[in-house]
């Protein structure tokens, strides 16, 4: 499966539509332009196994580049458009990128990056930039037919850096792999989503992130039409579902929260009955939030647990989740193992670090220490993403939290996710992070940092109200001992919270960059 098959059978069908501008790229146009890009990449000296980097916001040119690199056997690095020039330079250097493509909307940062680097080629999209060759003009000199030496390339994505410098995940490339070869994600999506040429898939997230990029690429392999939001907005998402009769969608829990906090009259204004399948991941979803979404949209909401590393996956359909509330599903790729610090499996129902067995462990580029740290101490073919959780008697996995975010207060282990899941349901809370802060007596104490809803002013009374709300729903030891307020928490557009940055404020650490 590959877009080039759909270009032959249905060239005028929209491959994707930009939701805001309405610009449409058909499968025939995608085929022609991605072939031109592949020729241009060869002309720039990029050989199979080489790396290029793309630094842009959501754009109609994004997939032309990714498919061009994919059919040229290259690694393509999608860089977060939120990064600073030194952060982008680090990724270019670490990945060994030979060519840098930047969106004109990121001109200021891109020009800084050019001054910090010494690559042979710098290309621009969506507008001119000094010192950057415009790809839209450049590709016009090349044929619209395939290059002679097509082979499958793949993405090389960098972790979001919630706990430090990002690491590139570099899967092995098979020599001469056909560009239309299948993979695990295609098989899983076909089994669970029922997606095909008649599907309309809405992507509300930045394309540089793993799930949006991979899901979009996979739905194009299946011949669907994609609707790409330039930026997420809760009401706009509902509008586009109605306008384009969207059938499939991938989301994150923070989007659910924002949808549910829209006024009731706004939520009822739009027809979402076209939806057939929605999947979410990236962060744990509070049980009340998931319950309300299923009540609103029906039992069409799936959930999975996986990482960019591709070392395993669990999956839960709506009916499975309703019978095992809070689960992230059963293993569909690999086998889940729950282990203690020594690497031994623990009994069913006990918490421990989550490992996947029977899969390929992560390959973090230029990071042998991180590769080793991901492996079980006793079973070197079992690998972990660093999460803590437990299995129930039916084999369903429940995540507790990231191991790195655990709070140890007076010798007691406290996982902040449980408290966050409760507090986010309060009508006056827009976002919340629960962290451990220094405490002379207990080592650490629990603190909540709250972003109030618009129009709600921070106050001692509000803090007391929220603490009382938490204590009514959780044991006191898991509840915050203090609450601070922040006008906006540092959260990635994909939904991941940069908790490290918040925690560093209270521990006196200076390196608080988002990387």
From TrEMBL:
Q: What is this protein called?
A: AMP-binding protein
Q: Signal peptide: which range, if any?
A: none
Example of a GO MF term: CoA-ligase activity
Q: Where is the AMP-binding enzyme C-terminal domain?
A: 418-496
Q: Which InterPro entries match?
A: AMP-bd_C, AMP-bd_C_sf, AMP-binding_CS, AMP-dep_synth/lig_dom, ANL_N_sf
Report the residue ranges that make up the AMP-dependent synthetase/ligase domain in this protein: 5-359
The species this protein belongs to is Hyphomonas adhaerens MHS-3
Q: Which Pfam families match?
A: AMP-binding, AMP-binding_C
